[in-house]
Sequence to fold (440 residues):
Amino acid sequence: MRWSLLRIPAFRALWVGRLLSWVGSGLAPLALVFAAIDLGADAVGVGLVVAARSVPNVVLVLVGGAVSDRLPRRVVTVGSSVLSAASLTVAGVLLLADRETMVTLAVAAAVNGAAAAFFGPATSALLRDVVPDEAVRDGTVLARTSMNAGLVVGTALGGALVGVFGTGTGLIVGAVLFGAAAVVFVRVPGGPSRASGGASLLRDLAAGVAFVSRSRWLTATVVLTFVYQFAFAGGVHVLGPLIADQSFGRVAWGFAGAVQTAGLVVGAVWAGSLRGRLRLATAALGAVALVAPLMLLAGTLVDLPYVLDPPLIDPLHWFFWLCVGLFVASVGLEVFTVPLDVAVQLQVPRSYLGRVFACLTLASLAGMPAGELAVGPLSRVIGEPLTLTALAGLVTVVALAVAATPRVRRVDAPLVPAGQPGRADPADAGPADATGAARP
Fold:
């Protein structure tokens, strides 16, 4: 990973702006939830505030990708940051003035979530505009490192601010972070004003979805992204806390979450250190690492005193290995995601980058609520251990299928001189656009 890329002013502005924004993104949801609690919301009310932020994010992310390919990406990035800052400012001021209501808080959360739908695709696509092709891999690793570190810092900072100074102050600090990011993003190059060249926003959106559906390697990786988040959200987010209550406790579960998040940072750095030696097809197998925490969670529910020695079924001993499993799963996710992001940056025409990243983001965002909603009814029918085992099996099967997909195996294959065995079929690449990138 080349930290020297930060010497490039445009990339440095993008990296710092993303870091500030992701710290704000880690802080904002937590502050909004506790603000709802301060207003007297019960579980239903808190759920409505959470949904008010997440639903616009999911619904508008494809639109955000199309807009990012249609307008100057700097404008989209700065605009989304300003909108996020404004939403948190209004919510924080109203809360500090004792004028906040559940309705105004939900509206602020919705605006914040909508802004995030435009921010992600635009900043991801901007990377290609600020670094040369040979530095895309290192730029991708640095970008993902800033994202993961920002979320960790933002969540911790949000908890501290809310606990010590109150939710109103926490929201104002989040607004300041997004405002500072908007100022930094102004230094990023603007890019073309109509990169996509489509006749309308709707046609641009449809063309982006069609591009992904025609590209078998993109379709396969989008499916794997959805399945991973589906299994992780259902198994870890929903069943994990319930199992923790029955065994090692809530405090330990919170620590396990911190270990899991740290794995994202380590995984991004490690995947970047491989420097192209890890092909996308092999990287897809990194998703199988999720099997470790899923099966360890299932193991806490199985009492086998006559098969295992007592230390192996001791809750705290099992908790240690669960932490290891969560850490490994996060490393595996980054091992898959970093080569995927690099392949997208290098193989997808620049005019489609925003929409392709939006499709990947949508798969990730949609997989989480789908898994959270599905795992409850399923566990009632077949039980929690079998549900966790089924999720582990689903991830394994899909990851193996993606790794075996011919287009996935060829998308980042090394170039072989014409006439030599092993040269990729030219039909796989398709005609190149004006940027020199291959079409599907």
